[in-house]
Write a structure and sequence with these properties.
888 residues, alpha/beta, eight-stranded mixed β-sheet, seven-stranded mixed β-sheet, binds adenosine-5'-diphosphate, binds magnesium ion
């Protein structure tokens, strides 16, 4: 007070009229707030040691005191300013806006208009609005979400949390078997004295556990078994372990892992065997112990992250090191060893192994997990009938949904083993009106939940469509949390998506500390592949990224599209695992009923089949039209694939595999890429070409692009009336997210420069290049080098002869050529379509007459709801090689 009085006196003395107004300069205001904050922080610091409730109470008291104090000051100031006449309302200090960001500024202005406090003095005090805003932001959320007794407060406050989202509670998804206690008869409630024992205890609480013996019996009795159980019941992590415990990994052929003869073998696991060792001309027969015959159990996952994460978990449960007894194998990354007995892998990997070993002789059991996802590779594996060649191979097909009959029918009425799941009832809430910006709506909903519900109550899971969106959401949440001040409990943000570094993946499974809440931002991966315990709230915007393919134009794209009803229900079910849950759908009940398909279209019906056709051909399957597909792809798509392979000279005119085709099939890459590699043999530039192929395989995560808010704005405002995913024309109504720009020569130069620096990390930092992606590219490159050897292509460098490189690229990518038009756009040759070069590509100024591109990508612009406005389509040329003429 003294200070303020002095301040006023001084200003008075200076004779400024302004000074009578209680407006301080922005700097002064900031300083005052900073000081007040510092004061408060000191106090709170000492309070932190006390319980949270006490701390909040004390803080409340302090606030009141402060308010009283500020009111006094205000009165004082007012007295001084009476003679100055006009008295403005106080502005919120700019500093606050800075903290809260643009959105809050907007919201604040709405709030301040409506804010009418009977106590005028309080209204005028420089801090009142800020405080009130803070209070009400929290209070308001209470009104909408909190328990009934808080409802009465709504009359007292006129505040509107502007983008408050209103939900209508619709249905309650019934719980299943919730009152049936988990079978705990075998669980001794003794305190587990080590993490390992704790894990063993946990294993016994899974819904799967009581059915262990029945399951083993069923596996024993039948060769093919369909297993159905709710997500999280323990199918993926437990079944392979049960089978291992029951000895399935020990059967089959011998594996000559020798133990010194003098060592005593552990019972049962080793057996004596005579072997013949020869060295030079000397050969000697020896009697040694051989590790008991073992064959691994393979378990496929539709996603890389799932394979890695589940393998990590199982290795913990078994108390072994990841990569030893338990390992995973995904494309370009093999984390297994000779010892591996439980092998988690992507279905694509199993398909590739099948190409090399059609009887899968090295496996005792194959479990095709998440079969309901109906990925391309799973479908093909089914069509190949992998169990047909070996009566002793057990085939388990596990699914989280009830379409099991279909699998059973397909496999000659294979028996279905149902694991009664446990699911608590889930309340479903829909929005009143469609949400224009689902990302923003998701964030607001999450914060509403967070501020209104006690932190220990349960975690939040938000389904988003991809990495970019997840990162944006993370930023927005962090930003807004800051704006909410210190009153709310800690919110731990855990992203999970395919490219998330392994170290960070484990974070989502860490138990939430007391007093905090976890919000998991996940892609579809959390729908059924990964189960995160402790989720009580699910926020479902209703979208996922989906591959789609138009056989007419040959264009394949990854688009954000509405999910199916089946997916929506799976997502909702994630909230009812450990107790009654709530699912907030950011779309209306009408949308759900009328706009969502019942089931997701199987991938095989919406993808480019060239790769599959090449694989099948290399397996000797010629009659593709009569191949036993579970859901046959459109004939047109098959023909397109055959046509492309013929054009690439992988097939001859009789549709038989050529030598080129056989070589191409060895590479786990798309046919155009593998053709490019095979062609590099002729042009003597395989060294350069595999670098390019490796860089392309890393995808669009090479350049590091610091984020700004733009991305948020760029996010597609999606419309539900997008139509059938398979129908490309309908999808064109929406303009999509642009991803990134890469050019043949740029990626090549990036790689070769990096190699010149001897793979320096520092160099990457300096050039805004993601080290991790580069390392991955290097790994992939090494593997491609190995494959070159296998198809007998010599590793040759053409000393950066760009003509040769371009020829090799064009041998693979000529179907992707486009010619410049007068108006500056391009026209694709094969399926005439006008496409534009994305402005950010840097190509706009050069515009070569001909280009070959790697991919066409639809780009995003804001899409206005209800306004069906067909903007000219913008496509992004990911890669142009003609421009190399100008640049190289
Ligand atoms: P299902 O395959 O039937 O959906 P899972 O076997 O994947 O079920 O999961 C069983 C349990 O194991 C779940 O409670 C899940 O939380 C836990 N779990 C699975 N993977 C991990 C992991 N990587 N870290 C921690 N817990 C995990
Ligand atoms: Mg699973």
């Amino acid at each position: 007070r003294e200070e303020l009085e002095r301040h006023i006196r001084e200003r008075d003395a200076a004779g400024t009229r302004k000074l009578a107004e209680p407006k301080l300069t922005r700097k002064e205001e900031e300083e005052a707030i900073r000081r007040a904050d510092a004061l408060e922080q000191d106090d709170i610091g000492s309070l932190r040691k006390v319980s949270r409730r006490e701390y909040l109470k004390k803080r409340e008291q302090k606030k009141l005191e402060e308010l009283r104090y500020k009111k006094e000051i205000y009165e004082l100031v007012k007295k001084r300013s009476e003679d100055t006449g006009d008295m403005d309302e106080y502005r919120i200090p700019d500093a606050y806006d800075l903290e809260g960001g643009v959105n809050q500024e907007k919201r604040f202005s709405v709030a301040s208009q409506r804010y009418r406090d009977p106590d005028a003095a309080e209204k005028m005090n420089p801090f009142a609005e800020q405080e009130a805003w803070e209070e009400h932001q929290i209070g308001k959320a209470n009104l909408k979400f909190g328990s009934k007794d808080r409802k009465s407060r709504s009359d007292d406050y006129q505040f509107v949390f502007e983008d408050q989202i209103e939900f209508i509670k619709a249905a309650v998804m019934d719980g299943v078997n919730v009152d049936q206690e988990p079978s705990t008869d075998s669980i001794e409630k003794t305190m587990a004295n080590s993490a390992f024992e704790k894990l063993q205890e946990d294993r016994k609480t899974l819904p799967m556990y009581p059915y262990r013996d029945d399951l083993l019996q069923a596996v024993n009795d039948h060769q093919v078994l369909v297993i159905v159980g709710e997500t999280g019941s323990g199918k993926t992590t437990q079944i392979p372990q049960y089978l291992h415990e029951a000895g399935y990994t020990k059967r089959g052929k011998a594996s000559p892992i020798a133990l010194a003869a003098s060592e005593e073998p552990q019972e049962g696991e080793y057996r004596r065997q005579n072997i013949c060792l020869s060295q030079g001309h000397v050969s000697q027969e020896m009697n040694i112990w051989v590790l008991g015959t073992f064959l691994p159990i393979g378990c496929t996952q539709p996603r890389r992250v799932a394979a890695m994460s589940v393998a990590a978990r199982v290795s913990q449960e078994m108390g072994v090191k990841l990569g030893h007894e338990v390992g995973y194998s995904i494309r370009f990354e093999d984390c297994t060893s000779e010892k591996t007995i439980l092998k988690y892998m992507t279905d694509g990997m199993l398909l590739r192994e099948f190409l090399g070993e059609p009887d899968l002789a090295s496996y005792s059991v194959i479990m095709v997990d998440e079969a309901h996802e109906r990925t391309l590779s799973t479908d093909i594996l089914f069509g190949l009938d992998i169990s047909r060649f070996r009566p002793d191979l057990k085939l388990l097909i596990s699914s989280a949904t009830l379409d099991a009959e279909k699998f059973s029918d397909y496999f000659d009425c294979a028996p279905i083993f149902k694991i009664p799941g446990r699911r608590f009832p889930v309340e479903i809430h829909y929005t009143k009106a469609p949400e224009a910006d689902y990302l923003d709506a998701a964030v607001v909903t999450a914060l509403q939940i967070h501020v209104t519900q006690p932190p220990g109550d349960g975690d939040i899971l938000i389904f988003l469509t991809g990495q970019e969106e997840i990162e944006t959401a993370e930023e927005i949440i962090k930003h807004r949390i800051k704006g909410l001040g210190t009153k709310i409990a800690e919110l731990i943000i855990c992203p999970i998506y395919a490219n998330l570094p392994t170290e960070l993946q484990a974070k989502i499974f860490e138990p939430t500390p007391e007093g905090a809440r976890k919000v998991v931002l996940a892609t579809n991966i959390a729908e059924t592949s990964l189960t995160i315990d402790g989720i009580k709230y699910v926020i479902d915007p209703g979208f996922s990224k989906m591959k789609s393919y138009n056989p007419r134009t040959g264009m394949e794209s990854l688009l954000v599209a509405p999910i199916s009803k089946a997916s929506a229900n799976q997502r909702a079910g994630r909230s009812g695992r450990t107790g009654p849950g709530k699912c907030f759908r950011l779309y209306t009940a009408y949308n759900y009923m009328n706009d969502l398909e019942d089931n997701t279209v199987p991938e095989i019906q919406r993808t480019n089949l060239a790769n599959v056709v090449l694989s099948l051909k290399s397996l000797g399957i010629h009659d593709l039209l009569n191949f036993d597909f579970m859901d046959p792809p459109p004939a047109e798509a098959l023909l397109k694939a055959l046509e492309l392979l013929f054009a690439l000279s992988a097939l001859n005119k009789l549709g038989e595999l050529t030598k080129v085709g056989r070589r191409m099939a060895e590479f786990p890459l798309d046919p155009m890429l593998s053709k490019m590699i095979v062609a590099s043999d002729k042009y003597k530039c395989s060294d350069e070409i595999i670098s390019i192929a490796a860089m392309l395989s890393v995808g669009n995560s090479i350049f590091y692009r610091p984020k700004d808010k733009q991305v948020h704005a760029d996010n597609a405002r999606m419309n539900f009336h997008v139509g059938n995913v398979g129908d490309h024309i309908a999808l064109l109504k929406v303009r999509f997210l642009m991803i990134t720009t890469l050019f043949w020569h740029i990626i090549f130069l990036v790689y070769s420069s990096w190699r010149e620096t001897n793979f320096s990390t520092q160099w990457c930092y300096e050039n805004y290049i993601q080290v991790r992606s580069m390392k991955r590219a290097r790994d992939i490159r090494d593997q491609l080098e190995g494959l070159l050897e296998r198809v007998e292509i010599e590793l040759t460098s053409n000393d950066n002869d760009y003509e040769a490189i371009k020829k090799a690229i064009t041998s693979g990518f000529f179907p992707h050529s486009a010619k410049l038009q007068k108006n500056g756009s391009y026209r694709t040759i094969k399926h005439p379509q006008t496409v534009n070069v994305h402005p950010s590509s840097g190509l706009a100024q050069v515009l070569p007459r001909w280009v070959v591109y790697h991919e066409l990508v639809l780009t995003t612009k804001e899409y206005m709801r209800q306004v069906v406005h067909l903007f000219p389509l913008i496509f992004l040329f990911l890669i142009s090689f003609s421009v190399t003429l100008a640049v190289m």
